[in-house]
Amino acid sequence: MNARVLKRYIMLMAVVLIASPLVLWGYDQMFEAVPGDYYVRKGDQRLSEGNYDKALDNFNRALKEMPDHRGALMGRALVFLQTERYPEALAELDYLINYLERTLEPDDPTGRGVLAAAHANRGIAYDRMGRYQDALDEYVAALRTDEDAVSGPDVVHKILYGSDDVSSVRKRAQYLYEQLQLPEDQRLLRVPEIDAKQRMYKP
To answer: Most buried by CB count within 10 Å: which residue of 111, 123, 170, 186?
Structure first.
């Protein structure tokens, strides 16, 4: 066999071997995944970039493929929270929480994490609206549902952002509880530089 032909054949086979897993992965992502998951992933990417219109469009596409897709519902709620559309965020979270409470199986830890995150995010919405007792109630509900899902920053967050100085659900709940015990004229319920560190939750 000609050496040049053999070399070309070996290079072609190497390319095929390298490319095959990527092609199979792409096929799986496009055609074999749960309906709506592809658009939820795209929505999450746009959300992390701050491109809220495109994020919302992707979450809406996911819901067309899979009505009540909990990742898409949560994604929509986070878009509304980030754009300060609090009534819409609350409506989305109310729906998600009611849906999960009706359908959640006892052996579904991911669903329980989503429910805890939904309570935490509803608490954040109430917090930002100045409804502090409602916020506290939601934070407590989140902690009772799945404290691990709404704990402080994980290792990835610390690596990406170089800090773990972020308000957690537990910290904020404790702070609100302590402040709400004080006479009304002595309460300090909003500290913008601290409140800005509060993160939203999307399992």
So the answer is: 123
35-195: CATH topology: 1.25.40
Helix H, strand E, coil C: the string for the chain is: CCHHHHHHHHHHHHHHHHHHHHHHHHHHHHHHCCCCHHHHHHHHHHHHHCCHHHHHHHHHHHHHHCCCCHHHHHHHHHHHHHCCCHHHHHHHHHHHHHHHHHHCCCCCHHHHHHHHHHHHHHHHHHHHCCCHHHHHHHHHHHHHHHHHHHCCCCHHHHHHHCCCCCCCHHHHHHHHHHHHCCCHHHCCCCCHHHHCCCCCCCC
Which residue has 């709404």 as its token pair? Answer: 150
The span from the CA of 190 to the CA of 126, in Å, is 12
Banded pLDDT at 164 (limits 50, 70, 90): low
**Would you say 123 and 90 are in contact if contact means Cβ atoms under 8 Å apart?**
no
How distant, in Å, are the alpha carbons of 84, 108, 150 from that of 129?
Answer: 10, 32, 21
Global confidence as pTM: 0.77
Please give the backbone phi and psi of residue 121, each rounded to the nearest 5 degrees, phi first: -70, -35
- Report how far residue 3's alpha carbon sits from residue 24's, in angstroms, rounded to the nearest whole number: 31
Instruction: Tell me which residue of 46, 111, 116, 34 sits closest to 76, measured CA to CA.
Output: 46
pLDDT class for 195, splitting at 50, 70, 90?
low
* For the chain, domain boundaries: 35-195
